[in-house]
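Our consortium's second objective concerns turning raw sequence data into structural hypotheses that experimental partners can test. To show how far this objective has progressed, the report includes one record in full. It was chosen at random from the queue rather than selected for favorable results. The single chain below, 217 residues long, was entered without modification.
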Amino acid sequence: MAQELTKGLFITFEGPEGSGKSTHSKRLYRDLLNEGYDITRTSEPGGTALGEGIRELLLKTDSVRLDNMSELFLFEADRAQHVREMIKPSLKANRIVLCDRFNTATFAYQGYGLGMRMDLIEELDALATDGVRPDLTVLLDVDVPTGMARAKARGPADRMERRDIKFHEDVRRGYLALAALEAEKIRVVAAGDDIDRVYDSVKKEVYGLIERYKRTG
């Protein structure tokens, strides 16, 4: 039976490397789809043809050296295209959009991790997001040694994963600081526990939001 919402919902998944964002968003996507919800699942960087090219540059291409400012501009260019081509149209159609990473990641990685000016990130990000904000951000929190071990087990490390431990510790600290500032929108889920228990916590947060916007009658 199809489930209808009174508005589109934008739900993002954030966390340090190896926190399980993709694992839990994929599982949630399957469950919601099976229950009749209209879903778009996507990720950053990526989600569009332009975004996939930017993703390759940012994470995979070792022959290209990026300074911090260039990296920031590429993330925001990816987001600008993603918002206009995929996210906004899906929300307008009253779909649920599940996205692995969005702008909270930029504040955590480029702001706290690389020490870039927050006011500069805020200015560029406002242009890129064009007024789009997540209705809920699920922050999967895991300690850095555990997360990096998980990431390493997945296969060869990408450009972000190869950065030093201090960078990753700063990113995690940044995520938790951002969550403290927006506790109603950014919900922290401890991700070092049994995977099913973590998923139960994720579902509780997401389904609590969805219930508020289900169309009845």
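The partners drew two points from this record. The longest helix spans residues 68-92. Strands lie at 9-14, 39-43, 96-100, 136-141, 186-190. Both points have been shared with the crystallography group to help prioritize constructs.
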